[in-house]
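User: Run a structure prediction on this.
Assistant: Running it now.
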Amino acid sequence: MVEQIVGMNSYKQLPEKIRNNMKKPDLITGDFDSIHDDILQKYKDKSCKIIHTPDQNNTDFTKALIELWKWCELINIQVDDVITICQSSGRLDHILGNIHTLYLAKEKLLLHPETRLQILTEDSLSWLLFPGNHVVSIPEQIRQCKKAWCSIVPIAEKCSSITTAGLKWNLKNQTLKFGELVSTSNSFYGSSVVTIKCSNTVLWSMKIPNLKDCAN
């Protein structure tokens, strides 16, 4: 398991019992330009595997995937899913950079071809849908939330044909393209699954509501 190190302030706010029981990360990697020296030293003292990747031609996200696959091959394990926990801090360029890495993972084989890669923020989950048929499960908690949303957006290319079922506004053999139609601010229509058939790669995003959202 590869874990993200929480920031110093967030770490100190955790109950002592949780801090003491936290599993140490298997792998820590990045350019380390924003980590506190005492935090890094703490995990060095715990004998965590630490890999410094100062190369600025790739983002830390991209470099982390590269190092993750190297690590998996080294210890001979197959990872089915990689869920990347991240925040954009309001930076549109960071958001676009994260989406770019989703594409790089496939185009440059940063991970095993069968490994699924997703981006998780505090209120959303996003991943790429490649050409073909897809079934997305929608938990009841999300379906019942009035603030739930989802989107299907063409990023790298035009999607010549897309058909959906289970959305509030379904698409039927339509084209998605910037400057024409993109399916943002869509929602669900009560079905436990959404089916999507697309001719080209698109970005699927959906809100993951917390209990406060669902109570309103």
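The mean pLDDT is 87.
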